[in-house]
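Quick start: load a record and inspect it. Here is Putative oxidoreductase:
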Amino acid sequence: MSSPRQPLRTALIGLSSSAVTSWAAGAHLPNLLTPAGKSKYAISALLNSSVDAAKAAIKVYDLPPSTKAYGSPEDLAKDPDIDVVICNTRVDKHYETILPSIRAGKDVYVEWPIASNLTHIDELVQAAKQSGSRVAVGLQGRWQPPLIKIREILHEQKLGKVLSVEVRAFGGTIGREILPSGLKYFADRKIGGNPITIGFAHLFDSVLSTVGDIDPGSVHTKLQLQRPDIRIRDPESGKIVETITSTVPDLLSLHGSLKKAPHTASAATLSLFFRRGGPFPGTPALTLSIALEKGEIRYVVPSGLALMSAKPDEPVTITIHNFDTDKTEDVPWEYTSEQKEVNDRAKGVLTCLYAFADGLDAATRNEEGERGWVSLEDAADRARLIESFLKRWEESGAQ
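Running the structure step on this input writes:
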């Protein structure tokens, strides 16, 4: 008789009591505190900017008194009682905070983007190969319930093969030319976190995971910086405190061909348009249209690019138009029972976070564990492709 699995001893990086953004608190922590989450992960340590900051967060979030407080990535990496590290810092801190743990052979879950630049990403990939560390990257959009449903429809091929895919998306930030002071870095290309590498990238990855991967050699992109003068607003006073010049494009138009797959026709076309900021009033934030031989699928997210942005009175819908009957029908989808236990932010992360734990459990440590989460190597390939879009734009002098 096998012994019951033990929760993985887990360190959280970036669970701050004073952070401007609260992805760790809003999207990860709720999943770790459910009954299922507690059976998989045991919060054993926090790493923040200082030991005192970590202690403050332990108190604010009412974590067990036994939770260790760290202010140094190297000290955390040396702790033999930590199995998994989950990183939710700002992107320019990812590399320095997770590299020591990867080198120490610990397993790591890091949010997307992986790091600020390809040099750091490549170093993380090599370090993981050398140490045997497993690294998952938070491209959790691949497992959103409606996209899983669309994949099922495509793979059934009752409507034939995919002929073309069209995406129109607006978002990445709420404003078109205003940023809150805490997100000022979104206008700085060097930091690595911005509407293209976050908003567009999550969308792009989710679409490709649904309809099929793209042939990199077929891709043509047009990027534009429409609004270079960015106003910075103090969220407390609501006043504009400064104006800066952005180095990040706010529009990306992409065209290419999907790789041949059982559910796609030869040279099936992908067309994707992304613009920072909200859409024209009454226009959905995201529309994904998939033309097939015998019908068409339309996926609409009225508000925001992610399900966590959906409003109760603006449901996310999947609709099929069957050419043979010339009728349309709505396709139902729903969250899993576990997802229903947590808030909207946490819902998207839950599947990957739990699958990662299951794959790392000693009783199930094998390649099957990679199902349900994105490996570092896979995510690095996606990062290189997106970086090539930005690099060509910079080299063209089109800013």
